[in-house]
Amino acid sequence: MQKSFWQAGHKPTLFSSFLYFDLSFMVWVLLGPLAVQIAADLQLTPAQKGLMVATPVLTGALLRIAMGVLVDQIKPKKAGLIGQLIVIAALLVAWLHGIHSYQHTLLLGVFLGFAGAAFAVALPLASRWYPPEHQGTALGIAGAGNSGTALAALFAPGLAIAYGWNNVFGLALIPLAFALVVYLIFAKDAPDAPAAKSISQYVAVLKDRDAWWFMFFYSVTFGGFVGMASSLTIYFHDQYGLSPVHAGYFTAACVFAGSLVRPLGGNLADRIGGIRTLTVMYIVAAFFLFVLSFGPAQQVAGLAVVIAAMLALGMGNGAVFQLVPQRFRKEIGVMTGLVGMAGGVGGFYLASSLGYSKQVTGSYQIGLTVFAGLAILAVIGLTSVKKRWRTTWGSAAVTSAKV
């Protein structure tokens, strides 16, 4: 990592953004690691399990648009404070009153969506402090908060056995309160934040075809990452008969791998260009998702295949957000919301389709194969736009960053 990176920007805000993002993502996917135990107590079908773990992903996706607008209107720090307080209140109510039905799980999932919307706050909060040549690295570090999904997988199933799964919602309040205090003390809004935009200016962004391309690209990389993170505990339990705790350990290993390489993906994109990095990552992800669709017989082989796919998706996440600030520097707030929303929609599709695939066909093959096909479509899309991007907004005459 370049020495000049650590001399730029505002490190307390960068790491406050990471912590806020990390613990928000921990509770965003909390229903996934608890799904085996919740489903057993509430007698849920495979399709209901799939929709339960996918609901926070979908609501988080939609709320990212609202949070993106809020970031531009009242600045990132205040927007993040509002989101954190809503999530803490929802978990407190769930803990004190209990979750007694499938409908209750869906309602809690809706409010946990505010934790997923942290993406639209944490990234602009960090991004606005850094120059173009360091965007990939800065957003890779802040975006490594994806690792919070691994914390949920690592600890939630064991805590559920020890204290009951409903009490896990109360235990989650402890790290969330710590993150809130750190955020209030250390996070600061950048002094050169762009002025708030009108609604018509937000709509105007959607008229730009590049916005739609970025939304599609992220729906595959982040959609694949969070969809798998939400579903892997169920997958390892169903496919290999693992206990909820051991399935959680497998899931944590996969998610940690995909999260920790996000900064590497951003840094690699800074060095060789986001388009080149993304192209390779999509091809690798498509290959391993296709292999996984056949259900490797040995659990170690299955774990290795999932880790490989998550590594590619995680690096792809960093590469996408090396490109977005280059193209939409002045609209980074709303673009983070829109692109993040698309990523969440991709995750909702993958998580829910895996549940329906299992219920209808008895396996996860169709859901995984279709998503591998989407990764190949992303490669085709990148190939179609790379010449235009490199000769317009990504040319050496316009930016010092590699595209």
Summarize the structure.
By secondary structure, the protein is mainly alpha-helical. The chain contains 19 helices and no strands. Belongs to the major facilitator superfamily. Nitrate/nitrite porter (TC 2.A.1.8) family.
Number of self-contained structural domains: 1
Level-1 CATH class name? Mainly Alpha
Examine the coordinates and then state which fold CATH places here, giving the name of the CATH topology. Answer: Growth Hormone, Chain: A
Proportion of helical residues: over 70%
CATH homologous superfamily title: MFS general substrate transporter like domains
Number of helices: 19
Calculate the terminal CA-CA distance, rounded to whole Å. 18 Å
- Report the C-alpha radius of gyration, rounded: 20 Å
Uncertain segments: none
Shape: globular
Number of distinct beta strands? 0
- Helix and strand sequence: HHHHHHHHHHHHHHHHHHH
Mean pLDDT: 91
CATH architecture: Up-down Bundle
Strand content: under 5%
Q: What structural class is derived from the secondary structure elements? A: mainly alpha
